[in-house]
Amino acid sequence: MWQIIQPQQRTIEELKSKLKATEERVTVTDEKVEAATEAAEDMAARPAVSWAEKTHLGSYGELHYNNLGFTYWPHPDVVFKFDYQWQDADGLARKPIRWI
Description:
Number of strands: 3
Helix content: 40-55%
Distance between the termini: 101 Å
Number of helices: 2
Number of domains: 2
Oligomer: single chain
Shape: elongated
Strand order of the largest sheet: 1-2-3
């Protein structure tokens, strides 16, 4: 009889330890759920914001590069290349930025 009771007693102890670990995880999960619920309620309690208040205007500029190039081959082994580049930012003409 004692041989039957001992394995059962070990099984009961293992199940108790697993139950304790599960209860601890449930407690942690409950805390997380409470925190999420409070955050959702805080968000719902805030006044509604119109689309105009959510809109943020940023700025960016357009930059246009213009290239003018010319290549001259006076001989199959010789080449002359000319390149002129200028930029135009938002419609404002700028000085040439390079001459090659």
